[in-house]
Write a structure and sequence with these properties.
Helix 11 (about 315-330) packs antiparallel against helix 12 and helix 13 (about 435-450) runs parallel beside helix 21 (about 745-755). This protein is an alpha/beta fold. A hairpin with a 4-residue loop joins strand 12 and strand 13. It has helices at about 10-20, 55-70, 75-80, 85-105, 110-120, 135-145, 160-170, 175-195, 215-220, 280-290, 315-330, 340-380, 435-450, 465-470, 505-530, 550-570, 625-635, 655-660, 675-685, 730-745, 745-755, and strands at about 25-30, 35, 40-45, 300, 310-315, 385-390, 405-410, 420-425, 455-460, 495-500, 575-580, 605-610, 615-620, 640-645, 665, 670, 690-695, 705-710. The protein contains 21 helices and 18 strands.
Length: about 750
Amino acid sequence: MKTKYTINQESKSYLANLLATENLEVQYKKTATASFDVKNRVLTIPIWKKDLSEPVTDLFVSHEVGHALYTPMSLLTKAHKLKINHSIVNVVEDARIEKLIKRRYNGLRQSFIRGYRELIADNFFGTQGKDINEYLLIDRLNIHFKSSHVSSNVKFTDEEMKYVEMIEKLETPEDVIKVSKILQEYCNQEKEETGREQEIDFDDHSFEEVNPDEMTDEEKENAQPVESKDSSTEEETDEENEEGTPSDNKKQDSKDDENPTSTGVAGKSDDLDQAISETDRSWESQKQNLTDSDCNDNEYAYLHKFDNDDIIVDYKRVIKDFKKYYSAQSHDPARFYHTSDEVKSAITASRTEYNKFKKRSLKTVMYLVKEFEQKKSAALYARASSDKTGVLDPLKLHSYKYADDVFKRLTILPDGKNHGLMLLVDWSGSMHDKILETTEQLVQLTMFCRKINVPYEVYGFTNAYQRQGYRPRYDDNSDRVNYKLGDTKIDEDYNLIQWSSSTMNNRDFDTNLYNLYALANTITNRNYRSEYNCWEYLSYPHQYGMSSTPLNDALIHFHTLVPEFQNKYSIDKMNTILLTDGHSDRGCERTDPTVKGSGFFRRSQNVFIVNKKTRRQYDASGRKFTDALINSLRDQTGTKVVNFYIQSRRGLDMWQHQETHGTLGQDGYRRLSPKTEALIKQQWKKDKVIVAQRDKHNTSYDEQYTINSNSMKISDEAMATPSENAKTGELKRLFSKSRNSSLQSRIVLNRFIKLVA
């Protein structure tokens, strides 16, 4: 019984890229035949039916890669001019490119043997129930070479063996044309002598003739040879003799490859009496029958590399914006509904409140810095090793009679790693009731990073800055980014606001953290505070108001930002932390001027994003876009991606945990078992946090912490008053409880310390 497999297109794309050993992209499309785009280095492979076996799938992928690497389109043109039938050239060229791809990747031999053995048994070549030795020479050669010689039962005369040897020695496209012409003449005569009838149908092949005179200037310009480097210089083992021995004096010459390449060759002849390869015709016809005509087509979009100057609002601009706004608020109070004295007094009071918070925070941060250094030192020595120095140790000389080790030893500490942090803050409207707690957390995190000299950047994603600040809401902003055809697009109003950076001097650092702290307090005051306070008299620049949730746009942009950050600081271990309270509000949009409408993909479409840096593709269909971007970012940069999912409600949002902890049902939805749900509720009640990990749960984040916004409130409670006759044990417990409460409330900072310690 033949084993069937479900084809993993992503794994087959990896196989094709591995085989090509160069910048080659593989796309699976709803098409009848394979093709290769020379200019963009894109190999298009049909979407095959899901019941294809693994050996056959590997065979087809390897075969098409072989054509992409070694077959020039000029082969087609030359064959047509010389009136060589396309099927004859196909057989000869298949033998050549399969020999070359197997020579380069010796492990493919078994895939070819098993794959062709299965195809022959399934009557793929139309020979079942027939005597192959009654076919013309070209068909016998085809079956012989596709049987990998070992299992071939094809018979040849002594005269015909010289043609077998010719094909075994093929190296260049010129060799293929030469041998094909000889075989065409031989088979024409053989057909006439044997009287074998052949049904000729010129439309059963997908590759049409190409006339160079009819090519556009762009096609001629893009016509390049595609042979892989060193394709004909690698040595072949003795075991390869059965597949053909490379010629010592011949190398693939691509000077005549004046036309684009395609996977497969063809040439048509006006002579209807010409001999053809019946097995090749059957091969081409059967290949088309294996494609899945009922499937949805796949669409591909590329990650764009951005010019950061067009998107990032740097901290200097932020400082300038707030300074200008507060100055206007102080000098034009009528515009802001308060008197000048009220505004100035509020600014002074807000500064005082910020300084108090900073002072309290600094005390805790310094304690955590000390604790961090201790953990770091302990971890270093735990990984330490010792080695002999080659220098005698006088203190050990007395033991030379019974101990061989009388040398001094050197303790070797492992090299420290350069850590880096990029923190992304959700600045969407739904964060309004938790933005103050979030801001307090990241303020302390940046203070900690500066104390231990860890490079960092803090950004907030928004689409309010452009819209409400420096241009009218509905102005066209589409030319801000220079997209290429097929690139993923971002919101025209998307920006990243740089709130803090390790490059800031102390003055700018303090100024911008105050701006952020004041902004968060002002937003919170407008929505939830009823008591009289200084924030009631303050406002903020409108472009820094809350927006929607362009999270996916920021993740696309981080594919540019994170590598630049790593290179700038020579980062060894990168950490990316996201503080969010929900999902992105945008799906995948692709640049394509030929398509009417927005360019967004429908949920029902199969969508893959392509990372050209890693040559990997990620399924971004439906709701998978964010996961695809996170996985792509991790693969490209090696960063750890950690998410703090902040929820407002006091109870537990079970929908979120159905996604991360649930079991996938037949209807495509995840559901929690009663046992898992009970464990989650128990953990939430005890720790006020639910943890999901990539290697254990259904999440693309390395770690995801679901927390309540109340848990993020910074606690600096004083130690409770001990009893009148308190003993040492009671004092220790009260102090420890106070200290633990203070430290545990710094949940983001605590997690970061674990990452870098």
